[in-house]
Structure formats: structure tokens, C-alpha cells
Design a protein that fits this description.
Low-confidence stretches: 458-464
Radius of gyration: 22 Å
CATH superfamily of the largest domain: ATP-grasp fold, B domain
Shape: globular
Helix content: 25-40%
CATH architecture of the largest domain: 2-Layer Sandwich
CATH class of the largest domain: Alpha Beta
Number of strands: 20
Structural class: alpha+beta
Largest sheet: 8 strands, antiparallel
CATH topology of the largest domain: D-amino Acid Aminotransferase, Chain A, domain 1
Mean pLDDT: 94
């Protein structure tokens, strides 16, 4: 086991990693920009190093400065958290060349699964169900021919992309060329790579993801699924575990496909296989995230496992902590979730326009009680900077079943007080009180439909 971990991130995820390090008896190093000098991850780490001014490219994305901070403090491992450099294979490679343990998958696996076209090819070879689609499209003739073969509607995606950037849904042939051109421009600006590919578009899918994990001793398994269909503009808002939409036979098929996939590519550490679940019950590979997910706490609450500690111990060469006497296993289908967990993402943003809302927090009170966990980096007097993601806190609730968890989530939203910046708490309340959400009648278009309803409609119709 190494002795000191540098956390190459900020906010609640940096605190999350620091806590895991402390519980493992490891020293931690925080890096921070000048905007985060008074941040909690800086206060709670054993050491802290300022690595630059507020702009991310000059601080949290500044690889030479981060490596220098590791060398100066004597860190022997780096945990990237999520976002920023967490899926940057070149950064992982630099860490290894500098004799720093990278707490994550191998750079080769990151490169393969980070390239959406290569990922499709690898997953198809492993037998994972795929939507009809293409490799990279480089000219208009191939674009038109592919659309005719697949059939409208189609979706154009950036090969190097994620988070909805560069993504274009096209229902008509006449709009295909313009959408392709716009998508290429956005992809170039966001990722430095304009390459696009095409898939058949599922019109009302659910977004289901499988938490996978593997160690360096040939043990590969899953830790169940998460329901991530509550999204706004391809960004997740509320996540749950388990999903109430999956028949048991489909769930087991998704588990089996996911574990076979990571075994086929020799994937180590934690990762997430993401799928679209179609209205007919078919599921299709969408992408793989080669890092810890924002929504990992819901899996922790229904499994009782600390995923960050697993990440650290796997990187140190240890076996999965929860293996039983049967020894190495590639597919484990008998691990059942304990109850139901829901995560609510609380952001500093206008609840109507969703514009970011930085500023000083003058008062704050987070909910507590049985089955409530709040992962946050904010406090009274904290100034929310305008330079980064607007996430303030993740409130995660756990109870015996989904109806009870929803009631607990409502109670927590009613208890929560954040004064100063505006937040999306009213928006979250509207979701958890919506009758369709309560019934579980959701898909990735749920939020858009809810926002199109007359103001107050869903609240007036809420079930109990």
C-alpha cells in the first residue's frame, strides 16, 4: 500500500476521497486554485498546494503543476475523482512515468473506451448488444447512405465526446447535413476532434447503468444497476438504485454482458457500463465511463461497500474486498441490493432558467436523520465561485423500498436551507412530487415533458 495520495480534484469529490484515505490510514494532499483557498478539501487534507489561478486550464487541468505538487509533497499515488482529468489517459500515463500510482483503470483501457467508435467495436466483439450504427463518418455520401440504412430518426454523436456535447438528433433527411456540420463544429470546440458517428435513435429510453469492478488478480464482477433517466439536457439530476424498470431476466442479462465486457478488455478498478433500455425491453450499449461516477453513493448505500476505498486498494494491488470463499469470479448474480437509494443533486442555479448562480452562502442547513447522507463541500460563509461546476451537494437517502425512499427524499428537501445563491431545490421538489415519477413512469424525456406542463400542474396532482 502506498502512503500518501494526492487528490487531483476539488469540491465534494475531493473531500470524499480524503475521507477514504483517512480511514485507510493514508496521508492526503489537496491541490487547489486561488479561488479555492478556503475550500474544505484544502482544510481537511494533511497537506495542500496551490497550483494556479481560478481558470481550470491553469489549475485543475494543469498537468505539470499537479505532478510538481505530487513530487514536492512526496505523494506516491494520485486519485483523479470525477471530471477534470479523471478520464484523461495521457495524464494517467504521465503519472505512471513519474512513478506515481494512478488510482483508476489502465491508460489503454481509458483510451479504448473513451473513443466512442473504438468502444463500440470492442463491446460488439465482447457480445454486448449494440444499436445499429456506424464507425466514423467523414463525408456527406457516407452520412446519407448510413442514415438510409439505419432509418430515421438517427442520432449523431462525437467520437471523443460525452455529456451531450456535439450530440444531434435528426428526424428528417433534409436536416441531416446541417446537423452533421453543427455537431462536428461543436465536437471540435469541445474535444479537439470533429469525428462523428451515427446510431439509431431510441425515442423513449430509460438510462440504466451497471457498476462494474475488477482487480489485478482476474476478479471481475458487478455491483448492481442504477436508474439514471431523470436528466435535463443529458445531465443527470436524480439517480436511484436499483431500477424498478428491469425484469429480473433482463437485469441478469445486463449484468452478464457488462462483466463479460470488462473481462474481455482486462479492465481493472471501478467503471460504469451505460445502456439505453428501449420500450420493448431491449437494451443497448451506450458508453463506458472509466472513472468513479457522481452517483456512486446510491450503489454504496444498497451494497454496503465503499467504492473509493475499493479503488485505492485495487490500485495498490489488493484483491476485491468482498470476494467469498469461491475465489476468483467473473460473474456474480446472487448479490442482492439492500433496500432502495435515491440521490438528489443540489446545484447553485436558478430553478427556472437553470443559469448558474455563484455567490456567498449566508446560511446553510443540510438534512439528517436515519438513512440520510449528504456529500458536500459548502458551509455558511463559503463563496460559490463562478469558475466551476455548480454542484453544491448530493443528498442521498436510503430506505426499505422506493416509496419509502421517495418520502424520505421529500422530507430532506423540505429540511434543506441554503441562503444566498439560488438553488434547484424547488425543481427537485417538483420532480419527487410528480405522479409519473412516483409511479416510476419515467424515461430520459421525463424532465422536458414536466417542464412543458403548466406551472404547478404536477405539484397539484402529486400522489402521496
Amino acid at each position: 500500500m502506498f502512503k500518501k495520495v494526492l487528490v487531483a480534484n476539488r469540491g465534494e469529490i475531493a473531500l470524499r476521497v480524503i475521507r477514504a484515505c483517512k480511514e485507510l490510514g493514508l496521508k492526503s494532499v489537496a491541490v487547489h486554485s486561488t479561488a479555492d483557498t478556503d475550500a474544505l478539501h484544502v482544510k481537511f487534507a494533511d497537506e495542500a498546494v496551490c497550483i494556479g489561478p481560478p481558470p481550470s486550464r491553469q489549475s485543475y487541468l494543469n498537468v505539470p503543476q499537479i505532478i510538481s505538487a505530487a513530487e514536492v509533497t512526496g505523494a506516491d499515488a494520485i486519485h483523479p475523482g470525477y471530471g477534470f482529468l479523471s478520464e484523461n489517459a495521457d495524464f494517467a500515463e504521465v503519472c505512471r512515468k513519474c512513478n506515481l500510482t494512478w488510482i483508476g483503470p489502465s491508460p489503454d483501457a481509458m483510451r479504448m473506451m473513451g473513443d466512442k467508435i473504438r468502444a463500440r467495436e470492442a463491446m460488439a466483439k465482447a457480445g454486448v448488444p449494440m444499436l445499429p450504427g456506424t464507425a466514423g463518418i467523414h463525408d456527406e455520401i457516407a452520412l446519407l447512405e448510413s442514415a438510409e440504412r439505419i432509418g430515421f430518426p438517427v442520432i449523431l454523436k462525437a467520437s471523443a465526446g460525452g455529456g451531450g456535447r456535439g450530440m444531434k438528433i435528426v428526424y428528417e433527411k433534409e436536416k441531416l447535413l446541417d446537423a452533421w456540420s453543427m455537431g462536428r463544429t461543436e465536437a471540435q470546440a469541445a474535444f479537439g476532434n470533429p469525428e462523428m458517428f451515427m446510431e439509431r435513435y431510441c425515442q423513449k429510453p430509460r438510462h440504466i447503468e451497471i457498476q462494474v469492478i475488477g482487480d489485478k488478480h482476474g476478479n471481475y464482477t458487478h455491483l448492481g444497476e442504477r436508474e439514471c433517466s431523470i436528466q435535463r439536457r443529458h445531465q443527470k439530476v436524480i439517480e436511484e438504485a436499483p431500477s424498478i424498470a428491469l425484469p429480473e431476466a433482463t437485469r441478469q442479462k445486463m449484468f452478464e454482458a457488462s462483466v463479460k465486457a470488462i473481462e474481455a478488455i482486462g479492465y481493472t478498478n471501478v467503471g460504469t457500463m451505460e445502456y439505453l433500455l428501449d420500450t420493448d425491453g431491449s437494451f443497448y450499449f451506450m458508453e463506458m465511463n472509466t472513472r468513479l461516477q457522481v452517483e456512486h453513493p446510491v450503489t454504496e448505500l444498497v451494497t454496503g461497500l465503499d467504492l473509493v476505498r475499493e479503488q485505492i486498494t485495487i490500485a495498490a494491488g489488493e484483491k476485491l474486498s468482498f470476494l467469498d470463499a469461491r475465489g476468483p469470479t467473473s460473474i456474480n448474480t446472487d448479490r442482492k441490493p439492500r433496500g432502495h437509494a435515491i440521490e438528489l443533486r443540489v446545484n447553485a442555479e436558478d430553478p427556472n432558467t437553470f443559469a448558474p448562480w455563484p455567490g456567498k452562502i449566508t446560511a446553510v442547513h443540510f438534512p439528517g436523520g436515519l438513512g440520510v447522507r449528504t456529500d458536500t463541500h459548502v458551509y455558511a460563509g463559503y463563496v460559490v465561485p463562478p469558475n466551476y461546476d455548480s454542484l453544491l451537494a448530493k443528498v442521498i437517502v436510503h430506505d426499505v423500498d422506493r416509496p419509502a425512499a421517495i418520502r424520505r427524499a421529500r422530507r430532506c428537501l423540505d429540511e434543506m436551507v441554503i441562503e444566498g445563491p439560488r438553488t434547484n431545490i424547488p425543481f427537485l421538489r417538483r420532480i419527487v412530487n410528480h405522479p409519473d415519477y412516483i409511479k416510476g413512469d419515467i424515461d430520459t424525456g421525463f424532465v422536458a415533458r414536466m417542464l412543458a406542463e403548466p406551472s404547478g400542474t404536477s405539484t397539484n396532482r402529486s400522489a402521496t
